[in-house]
């Protein structure tokens, strides 16, 4: 039996650098000296207005808090400005500016889906880590959060809480078992409204493909994107079933070059990406590999296919937390386009959904809450009242 690795294995994206440590000290000084305002909150994420950030932002604004969004650069600020101001965001701040350090220090509440500063909260400040991935990835203590005392994190179930305790080196008292705020948006999204916002055919069969972004030691390895050969093989099946395949690559992955396929939509990296909640809600099924997105997708009670061409290579070098793998997957595992087409046909042509019971079981294990109240539970747990 293989053992789950709990030793830190930082990637270029997560390991601390001299610059991040120095900035952490620059943030810590005003954070110690300045009083906190109970009606101020800071939010930071990748992408800046992802579903988790938007859910918490709307909840905070509904309670009368003044909210600032932190972004990494002026270009990102321009991309999100209209949407942020429309929602009522007070300011959009650049991450490494002195004024942003002061705003951070004056804010009682901080919410982030990625590490903002390598500086622990002090005094009455409450810092919530809204990290999104869970269950499907190797459990390695992430140094960006590990050791930062006082950082709270959320979990969707008792299994998720145990995962978080190891992943972020946090004690149970700092884990808020409240669900996932981003799933509030997923469960409240309407399928047809989402299709209209995305410009998708309201009557077509929509399959969403989410290749993940993975790490192999210190080197980043992007999961095999659907190749042109695979997409060409899928095209006749898609056309015969009035189906559209929507592909969204991970935002950290390099842009993928794919040819033109009539039934395939590859979402661009440029501009403001569509909300993942909308994409999921609009779809009739999910195709993915190693992405934790399928854990959230379970809440929709829709079919999932695990298309993982390099599964043998990956499982040979990685300690996956859910083993044996075949007992935890939410759908059939395929490694080639013909296999995938066969499984799609089995589901849609033969009405053979032999994985429904497995998905329901996984949904109960991974999610204690199946409602749209995770944000409310989070803000209540923090003692945030209306202002």
Mean pLDDT, nearest integer?
86
Number of helices: 14
Give a count of the beta strands, DSSP E runs of length 2 or more.
15
- The shape, in one word, is globular
According to CATH, the homologous superfamily of the largest domain is: CDP-glycerol glycerophosphotransferase, C-terminal domain
What fold name stands as the CATH topology of the largest domain? Rossmann fold
What integer value in Å does the Rg equal? Answer: 21 Å
Tell me the domain tally. 2
Describe this structure in words.
This protein is of the alpha/beta class and 387 residues long. The chain has two domains: 173 residues, CDP-glycerol glycerophosphotransferase, N-terminal domain (Rossmann fold, 3-Layer(aba) Sandwich), CATH 3.40.50.11820; 176 residues, 3-Layer(aba) Sandwich (Rossmann fold), CATH 3.40.50.12580. Helix content is 36%, strand content 18%. The protein contains 14 helices and 15 strands. The chain has a seven-stranded parallel β-sheet with strand order 3-2-1-4-5-6-7, with helices on both faces. A six-stranded parallel β-sheet has the order 12-11-8-13-14-15, sandwiched between helices. Helix 10 links the parallel strand 13 and strand 14. The longest helix has 16 residues. 41% of the residues are buried. The N terminus is likely disordered.
């Amino acid at each position: 039996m293989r053992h789950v690795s709990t030793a830190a294995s930082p990637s270029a994206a997560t390991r601390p650098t001299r610059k991040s440590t120095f900035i952490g000290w620059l943030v810590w000084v005003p954070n110690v000296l300045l009083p906190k305002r109970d009606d101020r909150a800071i939010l930071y994420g990748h992408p800046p207005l992802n579903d988790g950030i938007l859910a918490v932002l709307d909840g905070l604004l509904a309670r009368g808090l003044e909210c600032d969004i932190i972004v990494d650069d002026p270009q990102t600020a321009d991309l999100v400005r209209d949407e942020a101001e429309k929602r009522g965001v007070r300011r959009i701040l650049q991450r490494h500016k002195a004024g942003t350090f002061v705003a951070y220090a004056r804010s009682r509440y901080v919410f982030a889906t990625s590490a903002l500063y390598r500086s622990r909260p002090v005094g009455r400040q409450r810092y919530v880590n809204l990290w999104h991935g869970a269950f499907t990835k190797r459990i390695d203590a992430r140094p960006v959060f590990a050791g930062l005392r006082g950082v709270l994190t959320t979990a969707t179930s008792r299994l998720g809480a145990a995962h978080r305790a190891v992943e972020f080196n946090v004690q149970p008292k700092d884990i808020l078992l409240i669900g996932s705020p981003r799933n509030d948006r997923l469960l409240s999204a309407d399928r047809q409204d989402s299709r209209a916002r995305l410009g998708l055919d309201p009557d077509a069969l929509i399959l969403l493909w989410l290749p993940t972004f993975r790490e192999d030691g210190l080197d980043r390895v992007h999961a095999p994107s659907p190749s042109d050969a695979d997409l060409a093989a899928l095209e006749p099946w898609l056309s015969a079933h009035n189906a559209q395949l929507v592909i969204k690559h991970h935002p950290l992955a390099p842009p993928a070059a794919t040819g033109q396929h009539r039934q395939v939509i590859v979402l661009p990296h440029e501009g403001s990406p569509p909300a993942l909640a909308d994409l999921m809600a609009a779809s009739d099924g999910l195709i993915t590999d190693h992405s934790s997105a399928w854990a959230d997708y379970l809440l929709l009670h829709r079919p999932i296919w695990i298309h993982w061409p390099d599964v043998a290579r990956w499982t040979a070098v990685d300690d996956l937390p859910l083993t044996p793998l075949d007992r935890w997957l939410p759908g059939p595992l395929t490694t080639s386009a013909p296999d995938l087409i066969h499984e799609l046909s089995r589901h849609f042509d033969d009405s053979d959904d032999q994985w429904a019971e497995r998905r329901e079981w996984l949904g109960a294990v991974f999610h204690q809450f199946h409602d749209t109240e995770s944000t409310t539970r989070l803000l209540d747990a923090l003692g945030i009242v209306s202002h």
